[in-house]
Amino acid sequence: MHLRLATLDDIPNMQNLFVDTIRSVNPKDYNPDQIDIWTASVFNAVRWLKLITDQYCMLAFDTSNTLIGFGSLIKDYIDFMYVHRDYQGIGVATLILKVLMAEAKRQKYLIIYSDASITARPFFESQGFKAVHENVKMVRGVEIRNFRMEHGLESVKS
Asked: Which of 54, 66, 69, 93 could bridge 60 with an S-S bond, Cβ 3.0-4.6 Å?
């Protein structure tokens, strides 16, 4: 596995991984309407452009150079964290997260945050994050729940 920063050319593969992961991994915690609302954000071209231009976005690839995960950091906030369904639980997200945390620490942040899905919450907790509160948003009449997570960076190695 190897990592590199994302470029604009990576957006289509990132979008495919995003939609496939949500549709294959998250249905255990979210209903079909919630999944449809969540995946519809793939059509927000400005958001995806800003993911590359305004965020520190790290990609993970397998040995055949196939995209298997990505995560992003904007200031002290982990925005995206998605791992291909066939690569769950083998350390891909952990490796990406370590890089993002080191970057946040390099930028002098003392605490980082994320709004983790119900599905992702156990992963973030396993990495030392604590749930601060539950978020409940209404998007086009559909309730979406996730958790504000935080982690102190004092002990993180840069």
From this structure: 69
